[in-house]
C-alpha cells in the first residue's frame, strides 16, 4: 500500500513520509522491522506514526494498548538517545500496512496545510537534555493513557498530544512543543474531571444499593 504526499510539505516531514512509505510497502511488517527501517531518527518518527491511527474518523480498534506501549518505550529511549528496545512479544506483533498507510494518507492532507507554520524555533531549548526530557515525559504519560483500556473516543486527546510533540521534536520547534504542552495540560484536566465524575457516580450508586 502506497500513498502520495503533496509537495508542499516541509523537507523534514517529506522525508518522514517517504521513509514510512517505503517501509509500509512490505508485507507482514512487524514492529521490530519497522524500527529497523526508520534508522537513527526512529524515536520521534515512531511516536508520530503510532499516534496517527487514533486521529482518523475511523480508528483501528484493538491497537491502543500495543501502540501506547510502543510510544512509551520510544519516548523513554529518546530521553537517553538510545535505540528503541521493546519486549519480544511486542516486537513480533504485526502491523497492518494497508490500515497504517490509510491513516497516514488521511493525516497528510491536513499536515501540508499548516507546514508553513512549523519550522525550527528555540532549537537550543528543545534540544537541551532537560527540554528533551520534559517533552519526552509528556509523551510517555500520554502513551500510558493511550494504552489504558478506556472507553471509545478517549484515545484522540493523548494521541494528538503525542503527534504534536513528535513533530515539534522532529522540526526542533519549541513553540509547537509549548502548544503540545498546553494540550497535555488540557487533556490531564479533562481526564481528571472525568475520573472524578465516574468515581462520584460509583460511590453514589454504591450508597444507593447499600440502603
Category by helix and strand content? mainly alpha
- State the total count of DSSP E strands: 2
> What is the gyration radius calculated from CA atoms?
18 Å
Output the number of helix runs: 10
Main sheet: which strands, in order across? 1-2
| Mean of residue pLDDT values | 79
Order of helices and strands: HEHHHHEHHHHH
Low-confidence stretches: 1-10
* First-residue to last-residue Cα separation: 60 Å
Topology record:
Blueprint: H1 11-23, E1 29-30, H2 31-38, H3 42-51, H4 64-80, H5 88-91, E2 94-95, H6 97-114, H7 123-127, H8 129-147, H9 156-171, H10 174-210
Antiparallel strand pairs: 1-2
What would a concise description of this structure say?
With 211 residues, the protein is mostly helical.
Describe this structure in words.
- Helices cover 70% and strands 2% of the residues.
- It has helices spanning 11-23, 31-38, 42-51, 64-80, 88-91, 97-114, 123-127, 129-147, 156-171, 174-210; strands at residues 29-30, 94-95.
- Strands 1-2 form a two-stranded antiparallel sheet.
- It is mainly alpha-helical and 211 residues long.
- The model is unreliable at 1-10 (pLDDT under 50).
- It has one domain.
Key words describing this protein structure:
211 residues, mainly alpha, two-stranded antiparallel sheet, 10 helices, 2% strand, disordered N terminus
Amino acid at each position: 500500500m502506497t500513498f502520495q504526499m503533496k509537495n508542499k510539505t516541509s523537507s523534514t516531514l517529506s522525508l518522514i513520509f517517504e521513509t514510512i512509505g517505503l517501509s509500509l510497502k512490505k508485507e507482514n511488517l512487524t514492529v521490530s522491522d519497522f524500527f529497523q527501517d526508520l534508522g537513527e531518527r526512529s524515536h520521534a518518527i515512531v511516536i508520530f506514526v503510532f499516534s496517527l491511527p487514533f486521529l482518523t474518523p475511523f480508528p483501528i480498534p484493538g491497537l491502543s494498548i500495543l501502540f501506547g506501549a510502543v510510544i512509551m518505550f520510544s519516548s523513554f529511549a529518546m530521553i537517553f538517545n538510545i535505540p528503541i528496545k521493546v519486549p519480544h512479544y511486542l516486537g513480533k506483533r504485526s502491523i497492518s500496512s494497508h490500515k497504517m498507510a490509510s491513516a497516514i494518507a488521511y493525516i497528510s492532507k491536513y499536515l501540508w496545510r499548516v507546514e508553513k507554520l512549523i519550522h525550527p524555533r528555540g532549537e537550543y531549548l528543545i534540544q537541551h537534555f532537560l527540554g528533551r526530557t520534559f517533552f519526552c515525559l509528556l509523551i510517555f504519560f500520554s502513551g500510558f493513557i493511550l494504552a489504558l483500556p478506556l472507553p471509545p473516543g478517549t484515545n484522540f486527546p493523548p494521541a494528538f498530544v503525542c503527534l504534536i510533540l513528535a513533530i515539534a521534536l522532529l522540526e526542533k520547534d519549541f513553540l509547537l512543543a509549548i502548544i503540545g504542552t498546553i494540550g497535555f495540560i488540557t487533556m490531564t484536566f479533562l481526564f481528571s474531571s472525568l475520573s472524578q465524575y465516574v468515581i462520584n457516580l460509583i460511590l453514589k450508586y454504591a450508597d444507593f444499593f447499600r440502603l
